[in-house]
Structure formats: structure tokens, C-alpha cells
Amino acid sequence: MSENGKINAIVATDCGSTTTKAILIKLVDGEYRLIVRGEAPTTVEAPFEDVTRGVLNAIREVEELSGHEILDGEDIIHPNDGMRGVDLYLSTSSAGGGLQMMVAGVVKSMTAESAERAALGAGSIVMDVLASNDGRLPHEQIERIRHLRPDMILLSGGIDGGTITHVVELGQIISAADPKARLGAGYNLPVIYAGNKDAKEEVVKLLENKTSLYQVDNLRPVLERENLGPARDKIHDLFMEHVMAQAPGYSKLMGWTDAPIMPTPGAVGSMIEAIAKRHDIEVLGVDIGGATTDVFSVFQKTFNRTVSANLGMSYSISNVLAEAGIDNVMRWVPFKLPELAVRNRIKNKMIRPTTVPQALDDLKMEQAIAREALRLAFEQHKNFAVSLKGVQQERTISEAFSQSASGETLVNMMDLDLLVGSGGVLSHAPRRQQAAMMLIDGFLPEGVTRLAVDSIFMMPQLGVLAEVHERSATEVFEKDCLIHLGTLVAPVGTGQEGKPCIKFETTLPDGTVVNEDIPFGEMKVYPLGIDETVSVKVTPARGFDAGAGPGKPFESTLTGGVVGLIVDTRGRPFNLPTDESKRVKMLDKWAAAFDAYPSA
Amino acid sequence: MAHAYTPGLRVSEKTVIRKERRLPIKGEVVVAKGDRVTSDSVVARTHLPGNVQLVNVASKLGLPPEDLPSVMQKKDGDPMEKGEPLAITQGFFGFFKSKVLSPCEGTVESISTVTGQVILREPPIPIEIDAYIDGEVVEILPEEGVVVEATGSFIQGIFGVGGEKTGEIAVVVDGPGQPLDASLITEAHKGKIVVGGSHVTWDGLQKAMEVGAAGIVVGGFDDPDLKRLLGKDLGVAITGHEDLATALILTEGFGEMAMAHGTFDLLKSREGRKASINGATQIRAGVIRPEIVIPLEGGAVDVHEGEGSTTGLEIGSLIRGIREPHFGSLGKVTDLPNELQKMESESMVRVLMVEFEDGEQALLPRANVEMIEE
Asked: Cβ–Cβ of B223/A598 closer than 8 Å?
């Protein structure tokens, strides 16, 4: 901190698996603003094998771009004296594959699922979920543990006071596997026990000599309630103490930072949670990277995160093709390309993951793949973000007839208020309209939804900053990080192309009166800038629901953005025409409505 | 701006190659520093802990777990044979005894009075590692392995499948642009490393496998054929564990593309020599590329593997385009402007000016070229 105790300048880095990104934040005229961003290749691997090289290079770029001196040789200048130095230095990291965990629980859909939620919430990649009822024989489970070599294992199982046999059996399996840690041969694998408290003694006997065993409160003390906090906090502590400390150069980096290094997805998650809480809204966030895609949501005040470890735009691009199938990818491409050429092109991106699309057709192809990666990651998220399973519910007679059960997805697109996109393909799309279209096609929001992107992919740094200095994180987030794209109105229902769908009435800020009957199958974009609002009246045709119920009109005040006010009458569920020439014509028409690409 | 570098694939005529050969767990090193080894010499060996079998003895005998000690015939650490009784009940006046027999040979690891499980450990599994290349043991990693050094040619591929193989190099095409098809492969290629040109056809690959070729080194291969070969669509580029008799190494990429002249000429000049190849590829943090190592007799040189890979792009650097519309084209850097430039896709990127072999000049994103390192 500076001499007067104020935070005037902050530098924060995010060490990704390929790039280390640094941002400089300064107090300007009483408010915190982003000054510049710099980046450099991450240096965890040979020949450097020291993460701090990449950090120094990224900070040096920030110095050069801003003219603000931060480094004295290889030392970060503390504190800021008005001209040079910073008051806070923080970092997140996903380099070296991030945090990779295995979790175990007795029942796959109950304690094992809660353990998975705790691990994902802490920012880890869950390599496998072991459960007494996962259908594998003990020797297969043992083989799996040995083969995977996780950074850490979270063992849960049983409610407090319940039977201890099954969780002790899981302890025996872990003990028999005699697991070794992924990084560093010289230390024991950390195992966190967060199961039935009555089984602690037995679990300690089994594991204390073979692993570094830690005990925290049961993450599912009773069936009706999860208690994920203690396990999550322990995962964060151990990530620092064990995993990071083993990675090349991290011990040095840990000595530089003013707060513990956080796993990147954990930091993004806490940012999404903070937005939902501050505005009391339902939020969905996505971070689409090169190797993985993370989806975060807050619905009914419950935070969930999923990581699709093999869906991404470079290292994992070929897996998007494998999982989605070539037809699903090609349905978004507005031109013909032989299957052989598509397959070879995607594989070439996989083996040379840092290349960028130079030609326009190449960009369209890449954005088609992104839509499918988003769709698949969101499918996984919907299946995971569910209410607690195994809970007995008290029902009224009418509820009993509606057949709602425990374990239903919490994701309700009609209730969603804000959809935030982050990651290279969204943040760095040449036109923001392209990002809006990818988000709409990938997630298919329903009713009225605001859309935004992370301007330069800095949510990780702001997430860790929020832990120590919330005000600066919030101010920069609102002013410099989040780019509002606009508001989408998308009625649910299907119909025939050209038949009535909704009547849309408003007066735009420039005085233009809009009074349109928009038929089914259209995309419309009206100019409405950032912070501009208009009142609109939406009257859906019979069978369509734009948020107020089927056929019911509503009036609302909607906010604009860099793209504008978007009306999507392509229907939900959404289907593309199967006829090739019609499909291409539609894709071109919708892209033209957005002015998404330069005209040929 | 911060130091940026674009590492390329290495193609070295003569260099010092060091290979670390390490056991997965501690064991015994069976060679000494200074020993000459060949690719198949065993350099270290160990025993992996045996597989584990869990037998719920208590439930098999219908007893509560806490009664287990009274019926067990073996205790922790005891050896046992397959079919030997692990536990026998008292029975009724010595009659109607029930017993549980050991399903495997090994030792008793633990007996639990909480779950009723008995954990049996099968005998250890011996494993050995070989030297992989012909050379000299230059370093002993106590209880873990060795470093083998050789002087020779070293070529990195871009992608491969199949693990470590050795064999003599046989160039079967006339030039780097000629595809490798079945007609070029004969019984004489058994155990050889067959070098093709621009592409290997599916039939060509099949024929090589039929005759028992150790490996194929070629410019390109089609993805649908890779899917046929592996029996699945490869999602993430982590390979090397496939059970293939013939390893496949691509030097350029997917599709049909001429092998770089330098690579082809070097392989041609080493025809008939023994090479060690490894198709293992890992494109993630900690990139592993497939490789061709051709040890040569004779004196050492100064260059070491890994050196030179951090020099940046300069005017005059040789590069290869690695993305459409210039995929596979070779050229020379003529300018490195500092300012970001707008591409046809409207992406703003750092660029370089290149003159291709046919004299065409073009502006390319720096991210879309690869340095050809020599």
C-alpha cells in the first residue's frame, strides 16, 4: 500500500497454459480503471521452466505500453509512489494443466455428486468420479487411480451418523492403489476427507501413512443440505501448498504476490457469483478457452460450475468435431466445403494450436465450431446444475401431479437475466456482433436476456482482486471489463417461416418509431447504444411466449449495447432448415441483419 | 514489445542427442556410466506393485466383519497360493465348515474388521526399459534410469501415432512431392522405416503394416484415414500408446503436402542407416513431438538438442505457412512490421512479410508461420 494507506496502482497476472496476461489498474480521478494489458508466452515448460519469466515479460509489456515503471530488475516495486511501483500484485494460474482432481463418494448421484460440485467450485478439473455404485469392480477403480495420477483426491461419503462401511471401502480402494502425485516424486498425494464424521478414525488408519491426509467437515452432513465451503477452502489451500509449490518457478511467484494465487476458473467463478449477488439476478457465464470450456451459473441463488475438459478452440478443437459430429458443425457454415477438407483443416489447427484465422471463410468455420463447443458445454452444465438428489420433498396435491422430482436442472433459460461470454473466440472476435451471434446460437436464450462479453478476458485477474480489494475489482469490472452487447428478445415456440410470431413496438432514441409484425424465422437488430434504454411492447402471436406466458403481451424497459436491441424469432426449440440452399440463405440473411461480416 | 518467439520443428543434420530413460518407479540401473549401448539394450529394471484383489470374506461366510480374525487362516503380510484357504469357519461340531479360497497367488495386504474385506496383492510385475537409441551412457540417475547420448541426425515431426521403433531407413519415393502408395512397398521393407513424400494412402499404410514395416515417415495423411486406423475420432492430440506394429510420423500435417526439402534430403542422405523413431505426440502444456533419431559414428559436435529453439524470427529466417491460405508454403521473411495489421477476417494481428519459393510476396500473421530450424 502507498504511504497514505490507499491503493493507487495494482498489477495482476493470469498464467494460462499458453499465455501469461498482465493488467495494470490505477486510481484515476477517484475511480479505478484499467490502464493497459500486456501478454507474453507462459514459461512453465523447457527451455525456461520458470513461470516468473513469462510473468516478468508480460509485466514488462505493460510497462512499455503504459510508461508506468513497475519493475526494478526482477523485483516488483512496492509501494506506488505516484510515479512508479504498485501497491498490490496478485495472480491466478491454470498453467501446467491447472488443478486436476479425483473425487470419491458413496452414491454416484448423491455424495459423489456433491464432492464433484465442491471440486469444480474450487476451480479444479475433475478427472474421474469414483463411487461405490459406479459399476466398476474394485480392481478397475484401483487401476484408474494409479493411471490418472491426480494432484489431489477428495473423499466423501455417508451422512453424519449413517453407515460407515461404504466410505471405509472407498478408503481401502484408495489405500490399495497407493496413489502417487502427478507433480514431484518426493511428496505424498494430498487426500481430503470430507465424509461421515464417524468413519474418520478408520479412514485415518487406512490413509495416514500412504497419503497426506486432511480432514474437513462432511460436505453432505444430511441428505437435504450440502456444506461445500470447508472442502472448497481446503482444496484452495492445498492447491497453493502442494500443486503450485511443485510447479517450476511458483515458489518464487508465491513470494511476490500479496494474496494467495488462485486457480483461474475459481477466480472467474467468484466474479460471476459476485455479479449475481450484487444485482440479485440469474446469471450464466462461459469461458471458452483453447483446451477447456467452463460454464458458470447462478440460478435460484445456487452457484454451479462445470468444466468441459476436452471442449475448446485449439488443443481440443478436434474433440468438438468428434463429439458434435461433422453435420452439426457444418450446419453453421454458410458455404460448401468437402468433408475431407474440413476434417484435415480442424486436425491441422489441433496440431498447430496457436494459429489464427486469416481468411474470412476460415473465421466463419472457426466460429461455427465455437457454437458447437458452447452448445455441448452448456448441455453438460444443464445436466450437472441440478437440485440435490435423494431429498424427500413435501408436496401439495397439485405438485404431486406436476411430477417434479429432486435432481431437476436449475437452469431455466426463461428466467436468465444476463449471459456473459469470455475467452479468445468471444473476446477477440473481430466484430462484437459475431460474439453476440455465437452466444445466441450456442445457448439459445429464451424471453428477455442481456448479453455481454469480457472485453479483453480479464475476469480471472478481477476475480482474485475481488478477494482482497472488492471496490477496485467492481469498478473495473463494470467500466472496463464487461462490454454490454445488448438485449435479446427471443420468443419460445415454433411456427412456419413467414407466419406471424410477434408484434414489436418501441420508439428508438433517435425518434424512429418501430411498430413491426415480425414473422417467424427472422433476426432483427435495432440500434440502441450502451446505457441507452427504451420501453418496448412485445405482443406474441398465439403459441409463442416471450416471457409473460403464451400469447401474453408485456411492456418492459430494455437496455442497449454495442450491438443493440436484438429480436430473434427463429423459435425455441431452434431448428435450421435441412435443405442445403435454404439453410445457407438463412445463415447469410441472419448474419446480414447483424452486419456480422464484411461484405464480399 | 516483449520477446516473442515462434518455435519450429527441428531438422538437424548432426547434433548431440540426449535421451533420458527413466523407470516409472524406483528400481535398479543395470548399466554403468561410459557403457556403449544399442537401442535394445536393457538399461534399468524394476517391479511394479502387483494388482490388487478385494475379497469380502465376511459376507461370503455370512459373518459380521468383526468376527473375521477368528476365522482367518492368514494374517497381514502372509504369502498365499491360488486356491489356498484364506478363511475357514468352525462349522458345527467340526462339520459343515465353510471356507473362502484365495483367487490368486500373492500376499495378504490387509484384513478389515469394519468392511469385512481382505485385500490381496498379486506378485509384482517386472518391467524393463531399453536404451531406445544406439549411444553411450553419459549419466546415471540413481535407482531411476540413465541418460543415453549419441551424435547423429535429429528430425522432429508434427504429429505421429505408435510408440518407439527402430529400423533401417528406406526411401521409396523419387522426391518429396510423391505420394506413398501400396505399389511402392514390398516384403523387403519388413522391419524398415519407410520414407514417403507428400502423403501416405490408406492402402499404402495397410501394405506397410502387412509386410511388418517398423515405421512410416511422410509429409501428410488424411484425417478420415486416421479415424479408420485408430477406430475412433482422435479428439485430443495425445498419442503414443496405440498398439500399432508400424509407427506413423507426419512431418507437415493433415492432407496432402510435400515433405520439406531439407527433411527429405536429410532422410535420403541417411538411407540404409539405423534409426530410432517415436510417434508419441502430446500437444498440451509440455509439448512432445514425434521424432526420428539417426545415430552416426564419429566425433561430437557443439550443438545440443534444445539449443537454438529460442531464437526469434528475423529478416531472412526460413518459414513455412501453417494455415490457409498459405498452408505448407515455404518462404523467407522479408519484413517484420511492428504495427498490428488487419487481415481479410478483420482480425488485428502482428504480421510479417514473406517471399515464397515461387516469388510471391504475402503478408501473414506471425502466428501462422513456423520457423524452419536447422
From this structure: no
